[in-house]
Write a structure and sequence with these properties.
mainly alpha, globular
């Protein structure tokens, strides 16, 4: 009897192992296909300005669209999103200056990266939140590129990127935003300009940057790592629903909630140099979400 039980246990375990191997083989080739997909897109033609006002606006956009938050104020990159110890893979922000270890992009390359999430080889960039940027207006995009492309070169070698089995499985189930090109409407037609105003419409235009952490419906998400608190709900159903607009503005400018408690250290509030008008617009949008 015991031998029979052991026999069937071995068969079940062996079958399970074979199934998992077949499943992961499928996951591997599926994700490899997606990683190596060549996109056939029409690159937009933008006139990139060089005047001081456009550069100043581009600097501000780089701060509020999380460019400096990931690539650093000198744009040399190096921030780790997944390292040697991570079960997901190895992902560091890139050096996007023209220094050693950086990049050498034409205007078309910048547009391709920011509008389509694609590298020079027309394959998807990795873990670059282009899907949170690609719909900004032509005027804003041109100003952003004008600033970023003129940053002083910094010599810093990039880390080699890689994706581990868990990262592939999460990518397979669309639970990890490895390939931004998959989340972009490559036929979208951006508007030429947006009107700066304290309105829900302008707030929505700005708040797209928040979706990377707080999720697309702003209802929060799981913690980024072990020991960290969950990402909070910032819609009207979360704590923000009880805050005033002044409280929201103060929180994003000081890092302290209206009740005096500090924000989660993972919240990069210092990286977002929003104006009062922009913060009030974001509050108006978020506070109106059901």
């Amino acid at each position: 009897m015991i031998n029979k039980i052991l026999k069937w246990t071995s068969i079940i375990i062996g079958s399970l192992i074979i199934f998992l191997l077949i499943f992961y083989t499928y996951v591997y080739f599926n994700t490899e296909s997606r990683i190596n997909k060549i996109y056939d897109i029409q690159v937009q033609n933008l006139n990139i300005p060089t005047d001081s006002l456009s550069l100043a606006k581009g600097k501000h956009l780089a701060e509020i669209r999380a460019c400096t938050g990931c690539h650093g104020t000198d744009f040399s990159g190096g921030q780790a999103f997944a390292d040697d110890q991570s079960p997901i893979g190895i992902l560091y922000s890139s050096n996007i200056t023209k220094g050693k270890g950086g990049i050498n992009y034409t205007d078309a390359d910048w547009i391709k990266a920011l509008r389509h999430g694609l590298g020079k080889d027309n394959r998807s960039l990795w873990f670059m939140p282009s899907h949170e940027i690609y719909q900004i207006s032509n005027q804003d995009m041109a100003s952003l590129i004008s600033y970023v492309k003129t940053r002083p070169p910094v010599d810093k070698e990039n880390h080699n990127k890689s994706i581990k089995p868990l990262g592939r499985i999460l990518t397979f189930f669309n639970e990890f935003p490895l390939l931004p090109a998959e989340k972009i409407d490559h036929n979208a037609v951006p508007v030429d300009a947006v009107t700066v105003s304290v309105t829900p419409e302008y707030g929505k235009y700005l708040a797209i940057t928040c979706t990377g952490c707080h999720s697309e419906n702003f209802k929060g998400a799981e913690a980024h790592g072990p020991g960290e608190p969950p990402i909070p709900d910032i819609s009207s159903t979360g704590s923000l629903g009880k805050w005033t607009s002044d409280g929201f503005v103060t929180t994003l400018q000081t890092g302290k909630r209206p009740d005096g408690k500090p924000l989660n250290p993972a919240m990069p509030w210092k990286a977002f140099n929003y104006t009062h008008e922009e913060l009030n617009a974001i509050y108006t949008y978020l506070h109106g979400l059901p």
